[in-house]
Amino acid sequence: MVIMGFANRFEKGSLIWWNADYTHYQVRARIPDYDYYLFVEYDACITGDGSRMLADMMADGADLVAHPIDSGPQWYWTRFHAALYPGTRLHASLNCISFFSARALDHLAGRRRAMSVANGAEITFWPLGEAFVASEVMAAGLSFLPLARYGDVSHYNWFPPVLETDLGRLPAGPAFIHPVLDRKRYIASLLRHTHFVRHYFMSGSALRRELARFPGEVSRVQLYRAAANRAKERLRLACGGT
Asked: Using alpha carbons only, how large is the chain's radius of gyration in Å?
């Protein structure tokens, strides 16, 4: 990605996690002879008639189809992007399943490269992919259509996860689902992201009910460790960390 001209910048996690859109430009460069591209991350799922869905997106002339995120003051990342995308210029989208026109990908790649001059030295906070893609598409006057136009998104978010063996219990589609995790990752996600892990010790809590599906797989030591990690994470965020 760096050789392709994209800044080696990220504020949290890793280069590709923070800049998930980088990989889209690599695909566009290596497989250039398409008018439209659909990206589906490994833990996302589309149910229903995929061919019909794609046909509808193309017929609508969409440049970007993704799930909009409310980028108002309540979104955690809004304040970090205020310098680059002030006021109503900030838009956001959950891009685990995302559809692009070729011209949208070319425009976004060009914007990333322009911002990457001198490794983005003039940019104090490198934009998260969820903010960059939607904001730049809207600024260019390209069309941004919501994923919900093409199917159900009631199970499409970053949390809570869906256990992959539970997919058969969900509506047949068309629908978009994320994250879909195997047993090990599902348990890890519950422990890492449940706001208060101590709820496990409360009778009837959602966390206790979910973990009861996996008897003997989560020890009290793991629960105590998860609770401590969540407390540290909340404190770090409260102090302004990313």
From this structure: 20
